[in-house]
Amino acid sequence: MTRVILAGGGTAGHVNPLLAVAEELQRSHGVMAEDIVVVGTREGLESRLVPDAGLSLHTLARLPFPRKLSLLAVAFFPRFVFATLQALRMLSRHKADVVAGFGGYASAPVYVAAWLRKTPLVIHEANAVPGFANLLGARFTRQVLTAFPTPRFTSSRVIGMPMKRTITHPDSPLSPAAARTHFGLKPQTKTLLVTGGSQGARRINETIASLAGVLTQAGWQVLHIVGGANTIPADMPRGYWGMNYCDRMDLALASATAVISRAGAATVSEIQVLHLPAIFVPYPVGNGEQARNASESVACGAAMIVPDHEFTHEGVLATVMPILEEDAALQKMKEAAAGLGKNDAAEQMAEAMMTLSQKESQ
Predict the structure, then answer these.
(1) What share of the chain is helix, strand, coil (3-state, %, to 5)?
(2) What rounded mean pLDDT belongs to the chain?
(3) How far apart, in Å, are the Cα atoms of 188 and each of 175, 179, 256?
(4) Angle, helix 12-29 to helix 265-273, in steps of 10 degrees
(5) What is the maximal distance between C-alpha atoms in the chain?
(6) Whether residue 251 sits in one domain with residue 138
(7) Is residue 176 over pLDDT 70?
(8) What is the CATH number of the domain that holds 32?
(9) Does residue 138 share a domain with residue 97?
(10) Same domain? 322 vs 357
(11) Do 53 and 156 belong together in one domain?
(12) β strands within the chain, DSSP E
């Protein structure tokens, strides 16, 4: 019997790979759901998705790392120590044999606790530019796995992004027609999937809403995931379908002829595995990780990047519509994507965890 702690959360980009690895641990290694504990936050998507997956969720306070000196920065360190003590109690109470972390606010205290308790630790970094939590955690383990080549980690191994088997290994091929029917779309009409990630993206939402008529007149139907708290545009033309959050991204992706999206690591990885032509609009705030995530797809001709400030009504008419109006260009992008994507990352990470756990117990 192997007892596991999985740490991470906040956005879908952290939660979904965590759940994919949990699924693989149960499917291939016989780990029981009751032997898996997820450590996350109350505010993140994990508060809903983890219990829905039948797993136990323990929460720590959301602790953004301060980037400049302030009263909040002074308060951060005692709060971090307290969170680490909480994590130590969780690991001891659960008698964890191995810890796996996926980044995010809840991960860093768990990494320190695993080091203090001498519990084997495996880290997965989703982005091409790692965040603070995983940079810290990498000091405590040699088992650092990444979705993309990541120069900041000198001894990491690229395995790709852990994804649900409904995307990487569907029981039967998902036909675009059947997937479109699930969303009430026309089964034989080419479909543009638009998503700004689980939280949505205001720039993408506003621009696509302004262009809905142009897109439908050009022969497209639009499946637009606007994000959890955002408002679905009203008075849209026939052929536009908006939704706040999609629990069946496997079907949304299967329905797509092309995708417009942010370049979060999970989204880029899913698009690569499914060989979809993509227009990426990287999030303009942060360390530039989203542009780096998409760089491999762009380099081989499977995708193009439109900077956020250029993704306007006029900008899309000038740069994106010519591609969407030319089926041959889309087909060329689809063919270029055929060499991208890794569909066994969840298996590789689960195997690394089990191997490390068994070595420790010998």
Answers:
(1) 45, 15, 40
(2) 91
(3) 11, 11, 11
(4) 60
(5) 66
(6) no
(7) yes
(8) 3.40.50.2000
(9) yes
(10) no
(11) yes
(12) 4-7, 36-40, 56-59, 98-101, 121-125, 144-146, 157-158, 191-195, 221-225, 240-243, 258-261, 278-280, 303-305
